[in-house]
Amino acid sequence: MDAYLIPAVDGVGYGLLLFVVAAGLTLAFGVGDVLNLAHGTLFAFGAYAAAKVSDGTWLSLALAVLVGTAAAAAGGAVLSALLVPLAGRGHLAQALLTFGVALVVGDLLVGLFGPDELPVKVPAVLDRPVDIVGHSYPGYRLAFIGVAALIAVVLYVVVARTRVGSLVRATVDDRDMVATLGVNPFMVRTGVLAAGGALAGLAGALGAPIIGPGPRTADLVLMLSLVVVVLGGLGSIGGALVAAIAVGEIQTIGVTSEATQDFAPFLLFGAMAVVLSARARGLLTSGRSAA
After folding, report:
1. Measured between alpha carbons, how far is 253 from 88 in angstroms, rounded to an integer?
2. For 93-102, how does the pLDDT look when each residue is reduced to its tens digit (9 = 90+)?
3. In the predicted structure, residue 287 carries a pLDDT above the cut 60
4. What would the 3-class secondary structure string for 82-147 be?
5. pLDDT averaged over the chain?
């Protein structure tokens, strides 16, 4: 069992990183009914900010988080504005537009920062290994697990226990009724897309030492986030958390185990196929709840 301890801890960290990203994606779909295929690009904003701004000091790391989060939040708001002309045209039109935006912005990022994956510097105290039951583990990843867990708790409290969260949940359930109360659903959607972008940028800035910024980063993060959203249920924060941890464990332990490492890349999609098949037969609910 000792052989699986560190991969299991790593899976929790990887899963929490995916959760912070996927939470924004599932809120965008649950509240705004927007299928945002540019979400991985918003993650890349934060990751590149960390690579370029962070120089190994706490101040620069905090500045990188601020810059990456703000840039991704602005990107989410811009996407909301771009989607206005497509109102009522369905998810295919949204997917085509956001995928096109992702391609264009991805090429711009490669042009600005180069075709190679960039290194990310972290404060020296976090760059040291720590001991976990006699096993060495990267200090930054352990710290990230704590921070990401805190983000998950705060996000749940905001969505489930605050007035803003009540408005978000009400918009998920019945946006027409929300409109009759004098609340503009478009502004709610814009706010949620901006918040979802901020979560992606925050995850990118904090997770850049784990998933480094590079030409394929946005595609990888988008693919895994979509898997998390599908497994967790569209619009469900709690489902996304459970699914993200499961995906993280499958990714890490699946590669570590000799019994599964040969077909580890297929485990995720096999699990997704089982879940989709069960939902098609009514054995599972897809659910569109923001909590």
Report:
1. 43
2. 999 999 999 9
3. no
4. HCHHHCCCHHHHHHHHHHHHHHHHHHHHHHHHCCCCCCCECCHHHCCEEEECCEEEEHHHHHHHHH
5. 86
Q: Per residue in 16-73, pLDDT tens?
A: 999 999 998 888 887 667 889 999 999 999 999 999 999 999 999 999 999 999 999 9
pTM more than 0.90: no
Residue for token pair 């990183």: 17
Q: What is the DSSP string of 142-195?
A: HHHHHHHHHHHHHHHHHHHHSHHHHHHHHHHH-HHHHHHTT--HHHHHHHHHHH
**What does the block give as tokens for 68?**
């990456």
The b-or-e profile of 232-262 (16+ CB within 10 A means b, else e) is bbbbbbbbbbbbbbbbbbbbbbbebeeeeee
**Measured between alpha carbons, how far apart are the two ends of the chain, in Å?**
35
Which tokens is 216 given?
């394929």
